[in-house]
Structures are given as C-alpha cells and as structure tokens.
Amino acid sequence: MSETAMDPVHQVVVNDEEQYSLWPVDRPLPAGWRAEGSTGTRQECLDRIEAIWTDLRPLSARA
Prior knowledge:
Layout: H1 3-6, E1 10-15, E2 20-24, E3 33-40, H2 42-52, H3 59-62
Antiparallel strand pairs: 1-2, 1-3
C-alpha cells in the first residue's frame, strides 16, 4: 500500500477571516471554520490552498 493510500482524506477549510487550512474529513470541524468544498489527499488540499489563498493577510487587515 502506498503512503498516499494510507493518508486520511482531507478537506480545505476556511474561517471568517478568509484564512485557509486543511482538516481530516472524518473529524468535526473546529469552531469558526467551514468547509471550502475541496477534498483530497493532504497534498492535493495544500495545492488547492496555495492556488486560492494568494493574499495571506486576514480579511480584517485587507478591509
């Protein structure tokens, strides 16, 4: 079995400040976070975050 096959499925999550992270899909989301809609391997989720989170400042700092 490959290392990737053993990895749990992750999801991309985002908070109200538009900060992104990844989280295992089999765990309840922590308070203040919601699913962004993307799931996959850890690396696929990290790649998705890199593609969409281009401004690392929190939303309140951008406003």
